[in-house]
């Protein structure tokens, strides 16, 4: 395939709509996608290779090749990252420290994550972080930061505090902000009488966790809401309304929205502008819910495209932080990570390759015919040729990598 010749054709065709493909490719260089570390091993973590995933989330499937050692894990992650073109971060999770089984969550320190900094420097990546408030005996009764058991609540508060310091360490070492995302599984399976009590406890715990001042140049925290989980179908303490209010009132953290954490017809793409109105930063977990919060591999589907279009139209790529969150154990895990990362990058590219200013102008003039006609016509432009050029520019493989994976 003659990538350069094809790109010339694409450039000419896009130019007819006033779209400067060279400028778009430049812009692509600045937009990172945060690749989650947990598709590679079904969220088992490096603490215990036999560890069980709990907290109302599940990776289904039994594809072979799951890493059995720290070395193998990093090798596989490296391979997956090499298949995703352009600027990247990696989102680590607290159970991915290299100190082994004995170290409890209220004991973790930056030094236990030195391997991640080394890896990030070697691979020219940024790092994000996530406390692990699940897969632990102290989360077994379904509550962590909103637990009525003061010992349990304090244990998880300590975990949250330590995770922020690890985020700060990542930020300092790599010279770019680490986004530390807090998601807790807390909730009730059945009809809940006191919905206020756990939320008051969660507010108190978050105030304690975020009480320590940390320079936002190094670490910014996000809080991730959820509608329901397996075993918490009736009530989730950390709902979307809870966190939206927490963020707006306390201003000590930002919202994280996961594409799978809302009612089936509710989409996060339509929510972004309401946060951006108030200049709020947003963290995203771009995932693919199939009928429920199933965490299928992210693809170039309507909602992923809509999310990126919305960010492009709000010109907010520096305020909206794009992270991934999926775990599918039924296909090759390296390829799954690569597919999700590549599809997300494709969605960003596609969003940038739109005549956004012209569309906005048509809308303001009330020319809705033009708005719809233009939106439909640009769908036929040869986006794939620009994508191929982008992969080439980034020194990343085109599509021949597919042959390397036979499940
Ligand atoms: C769970 C949340 C959360 C987790 C990760 C592993 O429903 O989406 O983001 O998937 O922390
Ligand atoms: Zn998520």
TrEMBL record:
<dbReference type="GO" id="GO:0030145">
    <property type="term" value="F:manganese ion binding"/>
</dbReference>
<protein>
    <recommendedName>
        <fullName>L-rhamnose isomerase</fullName>
        <ecNumber>5.3.1.14</ecNumber>
    </recommendedName>
</protein>
<feature type="binding site">
    <location>
        <position position="295"/>
    </location>
    <ligand>
        <name>Mn(2+)</name>
    </ligand>
</feature>
<dbReference type="Pfam" id="PF06134">
    <property type="entry name" value="RhaA"/>
</dbReference>
<keyword id="KW-0963">Cytoplasm</keyword>
<keyword id="KW-0684">Rhamnose metabolism</keyword>
<dbReference type="GO" id="GO:0019301">
    <property type="term" value="P:rhamnose catabolic process"/>
</dbReference>
<feature type="binding site">
    <location>
        <position position="261"/>
    </location>
    <ligand>
        <name>Mn(2+)</name>
    </ligand>
</feature>
<dbReference type="GO" id="GO:0019324">
    <property type="term" value="P:L-lyxose metabolic process"/>
</dbReference>
<comment type="pathway">
    <text>Carbohydrate degradation; L-rhamnose degradation; glycerone phosphate from L-rhamnose: step 1/3.</text>
</comment>
<dbReference type="InterPro" id="IPR036237">
    <property type="entry name" value="Xyl_isomerase-like_sf"/>
</dbReference>
<comment type="function">
    <text>Catalyzes the interconversion of L-rhamnose and L-rhamnulose.</text>
</comment>
<dbReference type="InterPro" id="IPR009308">
    <property type="entry name" value="Rhamnose_isomerase"/>
</dbReference>
<keyword id="KW-0479">Metal-binding</keyword>
<dbReference type="GO" id="GO:0008740">
    <property type="term" value="F:L-rhamnose isomerase activity"/>
</dbReference>
<keyword id="KW-0413">Isomerase</keyword>
<comment type="similarity">
    <text>Belongs to the rhamnose isomerase family.</text>
</comment>
<keyword id="KW-0464">Manganese</keyword>
<dbReference type="InterPro" id="IPR050337">
    <property type="entry name" value="L-rhamnose_isomerase"/>
</dbReference>
<dbReference type="GO" id="GO:0005737">
    <property type="term" value="C:cytoplasm"/>
</dbReference>
<feature type="binding site">
    <location>
        <position position="293"/>
    </location>
    <ligand>
        <name>Mn(2+)</name>
    </ligand>
</feature>
């Amino acid at each position: 395939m003659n990538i350069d010749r094809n790109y010339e054709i694409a450039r000419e065709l896009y130019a007819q709509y006033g779209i400067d493909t060279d400028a778009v490719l430049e812009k692509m260089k600045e937009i990172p996608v945060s690749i989650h570390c947990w598709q590679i091993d079904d969220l088992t973590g490096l603490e215990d290779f036999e560890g069980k995933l709990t907290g109302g989330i599940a990776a289904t499937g039994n594809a072979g090749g799951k890493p059995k050692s720290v070395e193998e894990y990093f090798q596989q992650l490296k391979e997956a990252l090499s298949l995703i073109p352009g600027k990247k971060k990696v989102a680590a999770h607290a159970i991915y420290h290299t100190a082994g089984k004995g170290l409890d969550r209220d004991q973790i320190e930056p030094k236990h994550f030195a391997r991640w900094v080394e890896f990030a420097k070697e691979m020219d990546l940024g790092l994000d972080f996530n406390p692990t408030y699940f897969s632990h005996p102290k989360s077994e009764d379904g509550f962590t930061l909103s637990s009525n058991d003061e010992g349990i609540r304090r244990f998880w508060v300590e975990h949250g505090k330590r995770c922020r310091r690890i985020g700060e360490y990542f930020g300092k070492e790599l010279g770019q902000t680490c986004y530390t995302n807090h998601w807790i599984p807390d909730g009730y399976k059945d009809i809940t009488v006191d919905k206020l009590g756990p939320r008051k406890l969660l507010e108190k715990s978050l105030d304690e966790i975020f009480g320590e001042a940390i320079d936002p140049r190094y670490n910014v925290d996000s809080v991730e809401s959820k509608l329901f989980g397996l075993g918490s179908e009736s009530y989730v303490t950390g709902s979307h309304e809870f966190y939206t209010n927490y963020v707006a009132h306390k201003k000590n953290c930002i919202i994280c929205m996961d594409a799978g954490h809302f009612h089936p017809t509710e989409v996060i793409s339509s929510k972004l502008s309401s946060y951006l109105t108030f200049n709020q930063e947003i963290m995203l977990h771009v995932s693919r819910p199939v009928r429920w919060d199933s965490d299928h591999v992210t693809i170039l589907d309507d909602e992923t495209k809509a999310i990126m279009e919305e960010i492009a139209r709000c010109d907010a790529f520096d305020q909206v932080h794009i992270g991934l969150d999926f775990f599918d154990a039924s296909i090759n895990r390296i390829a799954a990570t690569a597919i999700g990362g590549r599809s997300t990058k494709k969605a960003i590219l596609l969003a940038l390759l739109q005549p956004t200013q012209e569309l906005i102008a048509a809308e303001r003039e009330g020319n809705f015919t033009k708005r719809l006609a233009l939106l439909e016509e640009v769908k036929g432009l040869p986006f794939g040729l620009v994508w191929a050029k982008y992969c080439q520019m980034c020194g990343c493989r085109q599509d021949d990598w597919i042959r390397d994976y036979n499940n």
